[in-house]
Design a protein that fits this description.
By secondary structure, this protein is an alpha+beta fold. 29% of the residues lie in helices and 33% in strands. Strand 13, helix 5 and strand 14 form a beta-alpha-beta unit. The longest helix is centred in the N-terminal third of the chain and has 25 residues.
């Protein structure tokens, strides 16, 4: 028990023990029954304190989860749900230890018996890759503040940290030939730009109905979309730069992620082709996170100098070389939404 829940005396606890020893010495020297009674009460409080503090820590389990996505260099929130069985948890301090970060502290005043409570911590992941929670230390001074009893738990949980993002300005994208919207075809299709409004016809999809305009005109109105000229933009990298230092490579990966994010914000289908992987153009949040996760975990130094496989002949997307965009990049930063 001492190994799993070590005890540390507080300042008040140290004074309390010394006072109890002094009362015990006085009781032995004088034989005063009142002093023996006081000594018994003092020792009884020590036993009760040990039992209650041990009960407050016994059976604690935690579940950690980030609130939203994690980005390198950006502040993030993680929620810790603490579950307790048996005796309630009272005045619990949580000390979490993270790989590459300082220990973080939080305080939970009450965890109901066979219930749960939650607390949040704020941290800033220093780099892309994995954010690893190595261990947690739960401690309490309940009930009298005589001792601080603690319990350590090995966690070994991790989450993916995306590369650092910055939003590329519209002027930069236009100068580099990345229009904010696809080319016009003036044909009905499944694109992202509206083409016309018309009355509802049998067989039209319900998702095309414009309910506000329908209510205003007292009949069903459907919005037709314009067909896109191609399947989207495919950002292409023939090979990882062979002369980049680790710091420059991290900036380069951050630029690729920011480029993808900027095009996603403009509702344009996007894809990515690099030596290790090919992502076809698509516009969805799931597709964005797939690319971000790959960029978060890729090790470009393993394949530096290796060329990319050829694109399929039937590819109908606009292929954009990333290298010239990197050479002409802007430096206007903005926090991602």
């Amino acid at each position: 028990m001492m190994l799993t829940r070590p005890i540390r005396f507080t300042r008040f606890g140290t004074f309390y023990i010394l006072f109890a020893l002094a009362v015990g010495a006085a009781a032995i020297n004088t034989g005063n029954n009142l002093l023996y009674l006081i000594l018994g009460i003092l020792l009884g409080f020590i036993v009760i304190s040990g039992f209650l503090s041990d009960s407050a820590l016994w059976g604690i389990t935690t579940a950690w989860a980030p609130i939203g996505s994690l980005y390198a260099g950006e502040k993030a929130l993680l929620e810790c749900r603490m579950l307790k069985g048996g005796f309630p948890g009272v005045a619990i301090s949580v000390e979490s230890h993270w790989e590459g970060l300082k220990a973080l502290y939080s305080f939970v005043p009450w965890i109901p018996s066979k219930g749960q409570a939650s607390t949040r911590i704020e941290l800033t992941p220093p780099k892309r890759g994995y954010l690893t929670l190595e261990s947690c230390r739960y401690s309490t001074r309940f009930p009298f503040g005589l001792f601080q009893k603690s319990h350590n738990e090995r966690m070994d949980e991790r989450w993916v940290v995306y590369p650092h993002l910055y939003l590329l300005p519209n002027d930069d994208l236009e100068r580099q030939g990345l229009e904010a919207s696809p080319k016009s075809t003036h044909r009905q299709g499944m694109g992202t730009l509206p083409l016309m409004m018309r009355d509802y016809r049998a067989g039209d999809a319900m998702r095309q109905i414009q309910w506000k305009m329908s209510a205003k005109r007292q009949r069903l109105i459907v919005k037709e979309m314009e067909e896109e000229a191609g399947q989207g933009d495919l950002f292409y990298l023939d090979s990882w730069p062979a002369h980049f230092s680790p710091l420059e490579m991290e900036s380069f990966i951050s630029f690729i992620a920011s480029l993808i994010f900027s095009v996603y914000e403009r509702s344009r289908p996007f894809g990515l082709g690099i030596p290790e992987r090919l992502f076809g153009p698509e516009h969805s949040r799931a597709h964005l996170h797939r690319i971000f996760e790959f960029l978060a975990l890729v090790d470009p130094f393993q394949n530096r100098g290796q060329g990319h496989s050829k694109l399929p002949v039937e590819w109908n997307s606009r292929v954009i070389d990333i290298a010239p965009l990197w050479a002409a990049r802007g430096r206007t930063y903005a926090r991602p939404s």
